[in-house]
Write a structure and sequence with these properties.
The protein has about 70 residues and is an alpha+beta fold. It has one helix at about 55-70, and strands spanning about 5-10, 20-25, 30-35, 45.
Length: about 70
């Protein structure tokens, strides 16, 4: 996503939520989460709101793709 490297992580205990962390550029930073992934309307919750709407939507779409691929 642009110049960022984002890590998506979750655990089996909370299968409807994954967390986003920026790995690059430094310093690593917790970005937020996508919740309700198992519903028809997942929601992106970012800790900081400076992302433009288009980038927010891209982050949500990419996170959902990764989550679904990991569950297959």
């Amino acid at each position: 996503m642009e110049h960022r490297t984002i890590q998506v992580s979750g655990d089996d205990g909370n299968v409807g939520t994954v967390w986003l962390q920026r790995l690059h550029p430094d310093p690593p930073m917790a970005l937020g989460c996508v919740v309700e992934l198992d519903s028809s309307t997942p929601r992106l919750r970012l800790y900081r709101a400076e992302w433009p709407d288009a980038l927010r939507e891209l982050a949500k779409e990419q996170t959902i793709k990764i989550w679904r691929a990991a569950r297959d």
